[in-house]
Specification:
The structure is a homodimer of 567-residue chains. With 567 residues, chain A is an alpha+beta fold. Chain A is 27% helix and 29% strand. Chain A folds into three domains: 286 residues, BirA Bifunctional Protein, domain 2 (2-Layer Sandwich); 130 residues, YbaK protein, CATH 3.90.960.10; 96 residues, Rossmann fold, CATH 3.40.50. In chain A, the strands form eight sheets. In chain A, strands 3, 7, 8, 9, 10, 11, 12, 21 and 24 form a nine-stranded mixed β-sheet that branches. Chain A has a five-stranded mixed β-sheet with strand order 16-14-15-17-20. In chain A, strands 28-27-29-30-31 form a five-stranded mixed β-sheet, with helices on both faces. In chain A, helix 1 packs across helix 12 and helix 2 packs across helix 12. Chains A, B: It is an enzyme of class 6 (ligase). Chains A, B: It catalyses: tRNA(Pro) + L-proline + ATP = L-prolyl-tRNA(Pro) + AMP + diphosphate.
Amino acid sequence: MKQSEMLIPTLRENPADAEIKSHQLLVRAGYIRQTASGIYSFLPLGKKVLKKVEEIVREEMDKAGAHEMLMPALQPSELWKESGRWDTFGPELMRLNDRHQREFALGATHEEVITSLIRDDINTYKKLPLVLYQIQTKFRDEKRPRFGLLRGREFMMKDAYSFHDSYESLDETYERIYNAYSNIFTRLGLNFRAVIADSGAMGGKDTHEFMVLSEVGEDTIAYSDESDYAANIEMAPVVTEYEKSDEPLKELEKVATPDQKTMAEVAEFLNHPLEKGLKSLMFKVDDRLVLVVTRGDHEVNDVKLKNLYQASVVELASEEETRKVMGAGFGSLGPIHVPDEVDVVADHAVKYAVNVSCGANEDGYHFLNVNPGRDFEVTQYADLRFIQEGDPSPDGRGTIQFARGIEVGHVFKLGTVYSESMKASFLDQNGKSNPMIMGCYGIGVSRTLAALVEQYHDENGITWPTHVAPFHVHLLALNVNKEEQKNLAESIYETLKKEGVDVLYDDRKERAGVKFADSDLIGIPLRITVGKRAGEGYVELKQRKSGEQTEVHVSELLTRVNKWLKQ
Amino acid sequence: MKQSEMLIPTLRENPADAEIKSHQLLVRAGYIRQTASGIYSFLPLGKKVLKKVEEIVREEMDKAGAHEMLMPALQPSELWKESGRWDTFGPELMRLNDRHQREFALGATHEEVITSLIRDDINTYKKLPLVLYQIQTKFRDEKRPRFGLLRGREFMMKDAYSFHDSYESLDETYERIYNAYSNIFTRLGLNFRAVIADSGAMGGKDTHEFMVLSEVGEDTIAYSDESDYAANIEMAPVVTEYEKSDEPLKELEKVATPDQKTMAEVAEFLNHPLEKGLKSLMFKVDDRLVLVVTRGDHEVNDVKLKNLYQASVVELASEEETRKVMGAGFGSLGPIHVPDEVDVVADHAVKYAVNVSCGANEDGYHFLNVNPGRDFEVTQYADLRFIQEGDPSPDGRGTIQFARGIEVGHVFKLGTVYSESMKASFLDQNGKSNPMIMGCYGIGVSRTLAALVEQYHDENGITWPTHVAPFHVHLLALNVNKEEQKNLAESIYETLKKEGVDVLYDDRKERAGVKFADSDLIGIPLRITVGKRAGEGYVELKQRKSGEQTEVHVSELLTRVNKWLKQ
């Protein structure tokens, strides 16, 4: 392709609103343009990369036995009302009325459409399982669109749905798609982890998220430094074995701690390390009040609290509610003398505390030398805290480290949530009607493109891996006004094209400096520069990512190009 | 692909609302399903065909030097207000508000988005011309969605836009895209015509529509039986040379024609053929009243009237307005004694009328023996009628025939309509600022799929041409309970797959009759039936379209399949 004929509008400056590298570089290198907040156009280079990512996704999904289809973006509200999500999805679901004032949603996801379609056409176990996917534009009205393609309002997704007559069949498909996803992100050259995730409000069973490791990720992953264990931080169980110090128990003592509100303030005031204090937080777990006690250096994990109570809603109680039952505000709560209507649950670590401090349930006072068992009882000890770096890995191998991750994929055992609410059932071998068992599986395709740039860039621009690069070779004619350079470049261009090498030819009447800068920015893996030694038939060959370069005579160029591209 | 694993829900009955063959067959053969009125899901078979059509479009667009990109469906209203179309597009443009109450359009077309994008990034003739295209979902809220994929509310389009610094450059690109379109529809195997079309309200210059010939088409094409001339019926000029009869002029006479309203009634009442009467219709051309006179057997072409006056709006005057100036209602109008404020224009044929009848501008009366020149004068004679079958072709070769057509493509010289209203300008070689000159080019991709079925079907189902068929070979195991049939079919399936033959294998436990009926319905070009002679290694090979069939021994099967597929 001749660069002079292509729309590749490079910029020297970062766009004002672009906070992260992928956003900055994709705009500056002419891959994308913003049409409105969170809404982007893919220019020719961006579309090329998008297609390459899509093709890898498609190949692996096909291999996994999934069948491609295409559902509409316009979805009648009736379907969303059946599933109940018309009311629960919130303002992220974009809605509109047609000319006859019928309500529609703009597809944020397609569980409703596919479930309605399958229930109309499939009614027997003989036609199950079915695994269907599409690669399609999705719409979500993010409150705060940001980070370019990472959090947009209109974006490209691969979404898949499976239908089964048994959980064994679901498990089998789940594993196949899980493996397909691993293949996809491996082929894309991404440094990623499949992490155990929260199945959340959707009522499903297993779920994994595929996270690309990146500082700009919005999620924290806890992973083992010695195994492939990885989980979303809220999902990692704590398996630390605590030891009880043999320090003799001291006498309980109440002290004034005026104006000391936070754990850190109290610890400093009492002159002990954070871990020598107990932290007590009041939660509303559905309709019940629960005082959750952890060690001062630990954080309460409300997902674990929710799971402990199998509750629907967990939230911090207001200070007003808390004071009403406890007689004290947030800074002075503790597990001693708690009214009967309040559950006291504590993290395992609390059991091993000796001579620690805690709030006295009286504003401005704390107890010293508190000892569980002697000074207070709890309803239950449980794993209630977030895992921390340095904790042992839950799989028993290695130590937990933290990393930030960009969620690019998600596999999810839905179970019968949608098939029950939308009445998608099948007759089993005994002629009995059962709700279909479902799974859903997503990949953020345009987000993956941004994640690639987060992992593949340097200070001068993008450094694409070959299999997703918009072109394989960038051919630069440094000075097209010089006949010998122009002629040599043109002949190399024709040869490469003829040999099937995917080449972008910078034939523009621009200065050499502009061409080099644009080439670095665009990030094509291999660069051929036709410059001063064109007359002798010598050109420069350079690898974008490693910076490795060499002079090559045109007679050997094709061999060398093919060799380097294979590396 | 194994049919048992794929979602191909065939139906024996036509859907109640499906009036035409493509709609009926695509639903019955399991290619599409309706999600809402005018909104469809493409099931795996449908998606496969769609992709094949898209790929042919993509290849030819790339060859024509166009570059693929992807613009968003969500388009800020500000852009549509700049072009003026927010107000003029009407209810077909779907609109919505985001969570911040900002207005958006759902892309019905992308002139606004691309023009805004180009004006921000391109400002010099050095970077022109640019030709960009996308294959993308479009939204138009049709008042009456019908005919399945032919007139939907959400559909797949290929739209392209070009930007130029001169009309010569636009002409050159227009011709290239025109040729690309001819290649696309030829490769698709469609019987089509490129017809001269009305550039309408968009103020453009040249425009052609690509029409697939089909009885169910909503447009009428006038084409020559001896040349490649073809035009939308309203665009075809009439070049008929009339002759004046040498019959002596008779005396003007007024007769009562009580209750005779239409031309046909009057002609019958007066006992003369239709062409011996003059038809007079009152139009409002912008703010002017114009009486248009044609021969009784001709129809007024209001596009020609509009072009004659270079008017914005042409519509029939109301009977009330007409009576006010003419003193008579619709059935009794004529060109004799017309008030000065009314223009009288007549079609060329009227000039050659001798002793004809016309309305007397008095309710219930007509004149007989009317002769132009003697009895009335006209402001102007012009080509004002629709062409008719039997008229000479405007290019001087052959005679006009009519056909119905489905519009599948459109090429259009936009000129500077959008670049002027949206201020997309470039600096020319003299440093002078000019509005960019634009072209736009569309193909209805999903509509083309339906048009293919309109041309490729018989009474049993679809008869796909090979290059767009969802599979090339349909392998049927008639009775999978018989080991020898099952084994042979499986081994043929594996061989074909290994050899790269695109095969659908009907491995279902269904009766032979069901398999044959489904196979005919689905319409894969070549069928291999493994049946009773499986034990001897013989199978049946049948061409779906021609019905030609033969028995083949498995040893020769692959050779024969490849030979037949090449035909």
